[in-house]
Design brief:
The protein is built from eleven helices and 13 strands. With 332 residues, it is α/β, with parallel strands linked by helices. It has two domains: 143 residues, no CATH class; 162 residues, Transcription Regulator spoIIAA (2-Layer Sandwich).
Length: 332
Amino acid sequence: MVPHKVGHITNFCTLPFLWSYYTKVFVIIAFIKGTGGAGKLGMKYEGMIIRPPSEARSLLLQISVGCSHNRCTFCSTYKGEQFRIKTFEEIEEDIIEASGYGPIEKIFLCDGDALILPMKKLVPILESINTHIKGVQRIGLYANAKSVLRKTPEELAQLRDLGIGIAYLGMETGNDDILMAIDKGANSRQMVEAGRKIKDVGITLSVTVLLGIGGRTQSEEHALDTARVLTEIDPDYVGALTVMVVPGTPLYEEQLSGRFELPDQFGFLRELEVMIAESDFTDCLFTSNHASNYLPIRARMPHEKEETVRLIRHVIASSNKRMLRPEYMRGL
């Protein structure tokens, strides 16, 4: 993660270096201190701002600060940061600012789980976007199981009609013991319910899973249960990331004490192989092209399933580390 310290950004759309450098990185796009006060130039961001790789060319509109859950043992992104929802006045000021940038096709609502906002706050934001910004074709946001399950199908359909086109659900694993151990805040049944709920109202669903999050001891269970739950959800996209243990997190302390041990490089690939081989999708783009991964994969399932599994097995059988992404090129 490479934070940038800046005050104001007058136009995100004019910063091509951000797009070119971070397109394949689950990025902290900026570490920005809001300055407040009247006469502000540009959009205002506060704290750590992250987005999925597929939102590289989206306008980033911050509607909340931090993460309402903020207890996952592997995540350091929002540690020490108090979750808060920005005021409508703050948000609309940024929307009006962005309206001067010309047509904008995609917008991503930051931060960690923007769907947690109650409808009485989220609906006016979307209505303001539709009023002021021209050309918007899709609005995306992060979601967790809790935030999805709090919304009724009718409410989710309303959000869809107002422009929400994709939701990113961090599932991490389909194994209940691991979900509890990492303090994810939901079990596998709730993950399935949340994922299906998003799909059923016609919102595109992207699910994130974490290779290695079960450690060596639960590697096989993690992969098999994740494949099972992914099959039940049947998302439009799956993004596999590889766990990188971050100092200062509870998972780091577990690693130091010997209670958690990561698989080796080919152990991560065995998990990836099992997840793909044992899952069944209707029409899903499965990727592992995030910078944390050792083997970049981008495959349309089910059509490229067998070819992809053969490739992964070939790399594992070779035991050739030169076929893997080198450590210096990996990152969060």
